[in-house]
Amino acid sequence: MAKNKRWGKEFIDKRDHKKYHNELLKRYEIYLDLNWVASWDEELTKMNNNKRGAPYEYPNSMINFQSLFVEKFSTRGAESLTRKLEEYGLIPKCNDHATIHRRVLKMGLKFSTPKGVEIHEGTDGSGFKMTNPGEYFQNRYGKARRKFARVVITATKDEILEVTVVVNEKGSLSEPEIAEKHIASVVKNEGNVVKSYNDCAFDTKKLFNFLEKNNIESAIRIRSDASTKARGSFRRKKEVLKFKKAGYRDWADETEYGMRWPMTEGHFSAIKRGYGDCASAKLTQNVLIELKRKVWIYNGVRKYGKV
């Protein structure tokens, strides 16, 4: 059988493997990083300034630290590990699992915007299970019990910029609309977005017009049945003509469309391998928070390894 000719240039691995190896090792140091303990009293003082009602007893830094254990184990697992840290005299005191659960749900899951650099970003969504049934439960109740949430990220190849979790697809924002919302947020935070890489699900006039308005280049794969008429978007017409003239492979080489994979699919693969593809929360609003927290923790751990 004849071997198919490889498409594109042969991959040359230019990665500094020693440096990358050290980055991977450093990521796991975050689970034992207790530098936040030194500012315990100072942080609590700021948190309780002008606060009405009972004062906070545990700083937000501690809750952020415990969220790492919650994601890997559970709130009780986080309590057990934190109790051991108190026993060794590494932290002033330990909270209980109910407090951990309540505070983790109220965490501010914010993503930072890179400043002073050109941002090449991609947006995509991936399904996550809202339940994690065993084999008997799945066989007994079948598809009626299967529920999925869709996590949509906008990211560069190095970090996540924005995240939106959609549970009920009907009546919610579409992925192109979410992409527009995310990019607008990054631009508002003074991020210099210069190019957007997306698959054919993002081939919409509205998104092309938004990118044109903000002077952002695009590498959006055009649908095979796309019309060459403008019909409200001259930017899309231009991109359609360019795509049809060059053909997919030449167009992909010219626009570096392949960069979309490490910006989206690569992150989703790492998140699901590291933190699972299902939520353990029961309430829908808690599922939304949990799935967003998975992405937030992955992004934080990844950035910690590069410091």
- Helical fraction: 40-55%
Helical/strand content category: alpha/beta
Strand order of the largest sheet: 3-2-1-4-5
Order of helices and strands: HHHHHEHEEHEHEHHHH
Instruction: Report mean pLDDT, rounded to a whole number.
Output: 91
Question: What is the CA–CA distance across the termini?
Answer: 50 Å
Most strands sheet: 5 strands, mixed
Number of strands: 5
Percentage of residues in strands: 5-15%
SS field, number of helical segments: 12
Count of all domains: 2
Layout of helices and strands:
Layout (H helix, E strand, L loop, with lengths): L16 H11 L12 H9 L11 H13 L2 H13 L9 H9 L12 E12 L5 H7 L6 E8 L4 E7 L8 H14 L3 E7 L6 H9 L3 E4 L13 H13 L1 H8 L4 H16 L8 H23 L1
Parallel strand pairs: 1-4, 4-5
Antiparallel strand pairs: 1-2, 2-3
Helix pairs in contact: 1-12, 3-4, 4-5, 7-8, 9-10
Structural description of this entry:
The protein has 307 residues and is of the alpha/beta class. It has helices spanning 17-27, 40-48, 60-72, 75-87, 97-105, 135-141, 175-188, 205-213, 234-246, 248-255, 260-275, 284-306, and strands spanning 118-129, 148-155, 160-166, 192-198, 217-220. It has two domains: 17-105, no CATH class; 118-306, 2-Layer Sandwich (Nucleotidyltransferase, domain 5), CATH 3.30.420.10. It contains twelve helices and five strands. It has a five-stranded mixed sheet with strand order 3-2-1-4-5, with helices on both faces. A hairpin with a 4-residue loop joins strand 2 (148-155) and strand 3 (160-166). Helix 1 packs across helix 12 (284-306) and helix 3 packs across helix 4 (75-87). The radius of gyration is 23 Å and the shape is elongated.
